[in-house]
Amino acid sequence: MLRVENLRKRYRTGDEALKGVSFSVPAGEVVGLIGPSGAGKSTLIRCVNRLVEPTDGNVFLNDLNITQLGRGDLKRARRRIGMIFQEFALVERLSVMENVLSGRLGYVSFWQSFTRRFPQADVDKAFALLERVGLSDHADKRADALSGGQRQRVGIARALEQDPELLLIDEPTASLDPKTSRQIMRLITEICRERNLPTIINIHDVPLAQAFVDRILGLQDGELVFDGPPSELTESVLTRIYGEEDWTTMRGDQDDGEDGRSARLIKEAPAELV
């Protein structure tokens, strides 16, 4: 379980990006983090694993207080937190398999990582993960030969290669077309539920979040202004998060037959599909 308590981030400029944010994510729950640009979404995700240092508050992963760890303990703790990036963050000249195995760099010696010689158990697990994300036939391809959707699948496999206890995902569909975006969101949510992983997805695409996540957190100007199921994301809630807009002209019912859900979606999101 992830537990965030009164998290605050104030920059040297005096700008306060997070203003006492508190929430928890139990095992197996997939949470969508939404809000306008500048609301603090990326800052929040990066404060959880301390890529950005919080000014105040606590972040617990199960019983471990991430915010109180020293440098060495933090490095070990980060092995337990998988991160999937918007721009994929792959090493383009390396193969798909080598990129997936980089998820084990925190567990092997310097010489093993330098020579890229990983234990057989790690290699076997990487092959199994590539099979799970639908890339078993691409293991030897260079990363720069893949499409955007394939690269994101490699990023998912790499994060899972860590055996994480928490998954943080930053805009996984921002550079993907609508069909690929749905495929990637479906894959992420299925895998997280299979592995009972608590997961936070920072996402601009509100309809996509509504269709796939279990719960939505809405940030506005560094404050948590909504925490609830997708079905409660009403026009008034959207106005609270994003500001005034005629949301009534943007809503409709759409049945997602592929994953068995009926989701009431917004036909136009505050951020366009890309």
Helical/strand content category: alpha/beta
Which fold does the CATH topology of the largest domain refer to? Answer: Rossmann fold
**Helical residue percent band:** 25-40%
Which architecture of the largest domain per CATH?
3-Layer(aba) Sandwich
| Number of E strands | 12
Radius of gyration: 19 Å
Which class of the largest domain in CATH terms? Alpha Beta
Outline: globular
Largest sheet properties:
6 strands, mixed
Instruction: Give the DSSP E fraction (strand runs of 2 or more residues).
Output: 25-35%
Strand order of the largest sheet: 6-7-8-3-9-10
Mean pLDDT rating: 85
Relevant CATH superfamily of the largest domain:
P-loop containing nucleotide triphosphate hydrolases
Structural domain tally: 2
The number of helices is: 9
Low-confidence stretches: 252-274
Order of helices and strands: EEEHEEHEHHHHEHEHEEHEE
Separation of the first and last Cα atoms: 32 Å
